[in-house]
Design goal:
270 residues; alpha+beta; 10 helices
């Protein structure tokens, strides 16, 4: 199956090209909730974010590699990458959010719930397959996402907000900061999903889980099955049962160190 999607389309309605349903009010509640969480994270991080921008100028392709802070664990960051490619209609656009986009994230929710579905629909960055869990790409998420829906994913949404706040979607600004694509740098600095999950499990022992407020009660059951745990809680109803377990990914013994980098700063909303 092949699907084209821009980041604008994903933010507007990630299920637009699937059979899943999420009403407009529910989408707005989710987005407002994520933006509120993002503002709190930026306060905690003192507005600092780390990202890398790359271009393949000869092919009009652009890569954004963003270190997304964990909401729960301080000084812990997920690797989120967007790969923007032109469409037949983007020849004169200066907004990368209108380009076709493919995704990578080593956030556990993306790994367990969406990696298989994104890969199946050609929305996963194939150049980074070696950084994703083999099991996540091979095994359908029968428990976490049995309907194989495409939905909002928090780390991806936060990466989008970082780009939006920095105006990195504007092609001229992006090109001004970007360097030629360095695949070796990406592969050396992006932690594999298996490593990141193990690292998160170890760090998570020091933090207690937080409860999430229920915000809405009008979501179809088939779409609920494709949500991450937090969004399910936000949109759950008393008569809808949602799977909350997943197949475990085998732990590995070592992790790769990520090089220190220069950070940039975002001013949180007041």
């Amino acid at each position: 199956m092949y699907m084209e999607m821009s980041l604008n389309q994903y933010i507007l309605n990630p299920a637009l090209k699937t059979n899943a349903i999420l009403n407009a009010s529910a989408r707005e509640l989710i987005k407002r909730n994520y933006e509120h969480k993002f503002d709190n994270i930026m306060l905690r991080e003192n507005g600092k974010v780390t990202y890398y921008l790359f271009t393949q100028a000869d092919r009009n392709i652009y890569w954004a590699y963003i270190k997304v802070p964990s909401e729960v664990v301080h000084n812990f960051y997920y690797d989120v990458i967007f790969k923007f490619t032109p469409t037949n209609n983007t020849g004169f656009f200066d907004d990368l959010f209108k380009f076709n986009v493919q995704f990578f994230s080593n956030d556990p929710n993306f790994v367990f719930t969406y990696a298989y579905v994104f890969n199946k629909n050609d929305l996963f960055i194939k150049e980074l397959r070696s950084k994703m869990s083999k099991e996540a790409l091979k095994d359908a998420p029968d428990e976490k996402n049995p309907t194989e829906s495409i939905s909002y994913e928090k780390a991806i949404y936060f990466a989008y907000l970082i780009m939006r706040e920095r105006k990195l979607n504007k092609l001229l600004k992006f090109k001004g900061e970007a360097k030629p694509l360095d695949t070796k740098f990406l592969l050396e600095n992006i932690m594999t999903a298996d490593e990141k999950i193990q690292q998160r499990q170890e760090e998570g022992k020091h933090y207690s889980s937080k409860k999430t407020t229920v915000l809405d009660k009008n979501t179809a059951k088939n779409f609920m099955s494709g949500m991450d745990k937090e969004t399910k809680q936000m949109l759950s109803t008393s008569n809808v049962k949602v799977a909350t377990t997943s197949k475990s990914i085998k732990k590995i013994k070592s992790t790769n160190a990520i090089k220190s980098v220069k950070s940039t700063k975002i001013s949180p909303k007041k």
